[in-house]
Amino acid sequence: METLGPQIIFWAFAALMLGSAFIVVHGKNLVRSAFSLLATFFSAAVFYVMLGADFLAGVQLLVYVGGILTLLVFGVMLTNRIYNLNLETQTFQVLPGALVSLAVFVILTTVVVRTPWSQSALIEDGPTTPIIGRALMTEYVLPFEIASVLLLVALLGAAMLVRRRTDL
Amino acid sequence: MERLDTISSLQYFVPEIVLVFTLMAVLVCDLVSKNRAPRERRLLIVIPSLIGLVVALSYSLQGSEAVSAGLFHNMVAFDGFGQMLRVIFIVTSIFVLLFTLHSNELRLVHHGELLVLLLTVTVALIWMANSINLLMIYLALETVSVASYVMVGYLKTDRLSNEASLKYILFGAVSTGTMLFGLSLLYGLTGSLDLFEIRSALSSQEVVASSGPALMVILVLVLAGIGFKMATVPFHFWCPDVYTGAPTPVTAFLSVGPKVAGFAVLIRFFYGGLASPSEDGASWAMVGSVDWQTMLMGISVITMTLGNVGALLQTNMKRLLAYSSIAHAGYIMMGAVVLSGEGIQAMLAYMIIYLFMNLGAFLVVIVVHNDVGSFDIKDYAGIWRRAPLLTIGMGILLFSLMGIPPFAGFLAKWYIFSVVIDAGLGWFAVIGGLNSAIGAFYYLKILKTMFIDGSDTPEPSTPLALQPLYAGLLLVLIVPNIIGLLLWGYLDRVTEFSQKLLDAM
Amino acid sequence: MIEYVGVLMFLAAGALLAAAATTVSGLVAPHNPTREKLMPYECGENPVGSPWGVQFNIRFYVFVLVFLIFDVEAVMLVPWAVVLKELGTPALIAGFIFIGMLVLGLADVWRKGDLEWVREEERAALKTAPKNAKAA
């Protein structure tokens, strides 16, 4: 029970993630693709929880599901007269694309399976937020501040590009 | 390298702090002066930016004491190499800031965000070039990218600019995402984000024996991100379109700033994480199981060849300079291949000279566009009759880019080729030489258009409008190209100082 | 991880409830569609065009952009807030620098009118509109 339960959950969400990701890429309807992304993002959050990264799971939900997905759906809605535009995603060069994807898949899985990755000592299950907070405030304080510069630039730039007037 | 904590790091971090405060101050000035007349408002944002950059520059020029340290718990390095690059970035930024002042393309838009973005990119480039931690490398690279995307698309009403920005974003997102994946695998392999710890992890026998394919994949993925910034093949596709669509001052900036920072990251990443210095610090030996020297050599050869061949076909000046900058990335990369202090020194010298010749060439493009309103090479016909001095200046810059003696560009190439030959890679230098020969074709084509074409038309030759500011800047940019030979001793000393301190890591 | 089983059960129960509600109402409710019933509801008017053709104000997009930035900021500040008491003044300063940076960003979008629902030029147009109407 102790091992079977997580196993079932993992495979269920893995299937959900791959299935919804497939719809995102191959869906003929932009809105449906956008909403399928919700399932993909959510499954990723579940994986984070299963790996004991509770903070990361929260971030995934808050930023990706709450923020980026909203942005995406609004972007879709802004595309006026979406049905008249015939926005069907067409697929070109299926064979070369499939071959490249397959090659990448094979290479990456081989590497991931074969390589002896460095194992860090197992950390006890528990809230990770204070650990992250301590790291951010001591060793990683510079990246923390630089992140604020990055966010500032992103905000300024995005607002500038969306703004209609050029003289402000 | 001494590892410093946050408080004791601050004293080595003054230029960066000055720049961050400047960008904040410029933003505040921009907001406060919203209701003033455009001219007045522009002064109110340009002057603080310039002051900030000059103050930062003066602080960066002071730091010549022979220390090297890992600031902020080994996040960024402070050494001669970094100090040199810091100066390069700030100088580039000052030039580009002055370029924007009279550019016709930017005449009708407000410059507030542009200056804030320029200052941000400058400080982010410094962070990027000095990062010795994977997280910092990624974060700084991303900051540079995000700000550059907006700068490229700054002309909102210009479709080419929009297209360039979109292409840049798409290409950049894929490249940096790929790089991030590679970095995460590298962390998984070595269990550390710190480049020096990565080096020691990769040096252990068992890792070397078992990690070959993984390290290969990691290096390919990471090179996608670095190569995107350096614009080396095969990550150069964005370059011609983005350079053409972006406002020319921004193009000038992109062709120097991020490219130099890309090479700095290359050096920090490969020499710091994947090579160990010899006892005297004059050469490096590769660590790990992947022969990345050959990899870089291949990239270098393909990059310079494709850049030069691509440039042959261009009819647009900015596109041509884009391909030329790709070719120059190939030459600069030659210095990184030889794994010696001399190589880094040659790279630094090349980058300094490249700064002057390339910014100069782009300034001429801006000046001509201001008057003629076109970037097509055919519209450069007859410039000789309208502006003889400008044409001679462009001639000097182009000869320098070609690598013709006695101009500085020749010295740069000669230095880098001789280093490569010293390392026993004669064939590599021959390829470089052949490429320079191809390069001469298209540079000479421009000169021919300017000097000879259109000289038989009876049109009245009104003098080309040249703003005094641009004339002065051109002089400043051209003179080092002429007297490069005289400055050589100084340059050699400076680069040697810089290189000597890099190997402290 | 065991504490998340509750979350999972909650989610499962929620999904189940929603599925049950729609299925049951589908089974139980009378099913008699007419053309009028299938049309989008527009306050009694006959709708024109597809429901996606509505004028969707671009302002929404700006708001989401701003929201997203501050969303990320909030995420960065959560771990900071958790350890703030323990680490004291240095952490407080670090956090305030971070917040100050983003307040500047907020000041920018505010000052430049990106947060106003009615744009400045539109407001000017609204003011002059009655006069024009009189003249006509």
Q: Which tags fit this structure?
A:
B: 505 residues; mainly alpha; 2 domains; two-stranded antiparallel ribbon; 3% strand; C: 136 residues; 5 helices; flat
How is the secondary structure organized here?
The complex is a heterotrimer of chains A (168), B (505) and C (136).
Chain A: H1 4-26, H2 30-50, H3 54-78, H4 94-114, H5 129-137, H6 141-162
Helix pairs in contact in A: 1-2, 2-3
Chain B: E1 2-3, H1 6-9, H2 14-32, H3 38-62, E2 69-70, H4 71-74, E3 76-78, H5 80-99, H6 112-130, H7 134-152, H8 159-190, H9 195-203, H10 205-210, H11 212-230, H12 238-245, H13 248-273, E4 275-277, E5 284-286, H14 292-312, H15 317-337, H16 341-372, H17 383-386, H18 388-402, H19 408-422, H20 426-451, H21 468-482, H22 484-502
Parallel strand pairs in B: 1-2
Antiparallel strand pairs in B: 2-3, 4-5
Helix pairs in contact in B: 2-3, 2-6, 3-5, 3-6, 5-6, 5-13, 5-16, 5-22, 6-7, 6-13, 7-8, 7-13, 8-11, 8-12, 9-13, 11-13, 12-13, 12-15, 13-15, 13-16, 14-15, 14-20, 15-16, 15-19, 15-20, 16-18, 16-19, 16-21, 16-22, 18-20, 18-21, 19-20
Chain C: H1 4-28, H2 35-38, H3 59-87, H4 89-111, H5 120-135
Helix pairs in contact in C: 3-4
- Low-confidence segments of chain C, ≥5 residues, pLDDT <50? none
Task: Tell me the major beta sheet of chain B.
Answer: 3 strands, mixed
Largest sheet of chain C: none
Average pLDDT across residues of chain C? 82
Cross-sheet strand order for the largest sheet of chain B: 1-2-3
Shape of chain C: flat
Alpha-beta content class of chain C: mainly alpha
Cα Rg of chain B: 22 Å
Total number of helical segments of chain B? 22
Helix content of chain B: over 70%
What sequence of helices (H) and strands (E) makes up the elements of chain C? Answer: HHHHH
- The span between the termini of chain B is 5 Å
Strand content of chain B: under 5%
* Number of beta strands of chain B: 5
